[in-house]
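Work Package 3 (structural annotation) set out to generate three-dimensional models for the target panel prioritized at the project kickoff. During this period the team completed the workflow that converts sequence records into discrete structure tokens, so that structures can be stored uniformly alongside our sequence database. As a representative example, we reproduce one entry of 108 residues exactly as it appears in the project archive.
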Amino acid sequence: MSICKQPIYPHLVRRVPDQFSWVDHRLIRERYIDHLSTGASALYLFLITVSDSQGLSYYSDQTLEKRLGLDDRGLEIARKELIVQQLIGWQRPLYQVLSLDHRRTDHD
């Protein structure tokens, strides 16, 4: 089965931030991470590490659970937290790490 990788939210494709890494410092500076559980933080770190230049990746629930030490319910809760916080989009099996830029305008 071939998976077509198209952004779930094309208008929210992330870009490399001005600093030196894919991990946007605003995650800490603007306290997004303060609202995440350990499971959601681990899932977010995994997704930003494995995603492509558009923030896209796909891993099965079983692989994510094994790699992150989560059970079915733990993964479901972590994923929902990230969706509610507008940090990821998800349409099985595709994840999209979203730009933080839209959050700044939503909360200013």
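The beta strands are 56-58, 88-91, 94-97.
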